[in-house]
Amino acid sequence: MWRPAVISWSTSRWSPAESRPHKESFIPPLNRLQAFASLSLSLSLSLSLSLSLSRARRWVGWGGVSDESRDHEDEYAVAERIDRAHADNARLAAWLAEQHGRFDAWNTRHGGGWDFSERSLDRMEALIREHVTSVDDLFTHERTPMIQVACWYVGEVHNRTRGTQWRTDPDPAASHPWSARPYVIVPIARLHAFKDPEGIDYDARPRHHPLSGFLALLRDEPAAVQGALRSALDD
Fold this sequence. Notes:
This protein is mainly α. The chain has 2 domains: 16-71; 75-234, no CATH class. 51% of the residues lie in helices and 3% in strands. It is built from 10 helices and 3 strands. Strands 1-2-3 form a 3-stranded antiparallel β-sheet. Helix 4 crosses helix 7. The model is unreliable at 1-64 (pLDDT under 50).
């Protein structure tokens, strides 16, 4: 499942004690110009990090949460509130209703018999390869009924066989296109079953964007990814 990459920063601070002579070696003190340059770089890095964190928080749903509110809520309460906002919003409801309404015609157009079984994902792989020639072609036709219903279908197979649920950001950030795409994820009640190995993300539940599975199919040779959509059920 796709997960956004996390970039971490670390900066070291200069201390006046570092300019004191030691028995082993002597480190000369910074002159005023060097000190000013060092301070300017430190402030620049701090500002860049602050902006990056602000954008990251908005992408995962922190945009409307004040610092004061975060200070008075534990991490689970915040994760639960974000999850609830992503589960119950007009954007998601409209998208789900649209794809559900298109499905009967889509099913007939593409041979019928689409039964939401795990095995039907192998058939979906063949369908995507038949109708989409490249990654660029996929993005060009992303908003067409053929691709949108295919994404909905793959998500529904996850939901019906693995107990995941649909989510989408009610207010996606323009700078993060993936935040506008619906995804499936296990319920918030299972949050503690998933741990971020780097200890950065409190909510480490894997998200699955169906479109990302189609991207993988088109980037690799058919033999290398045969059964990939089905394998993703247990990622």
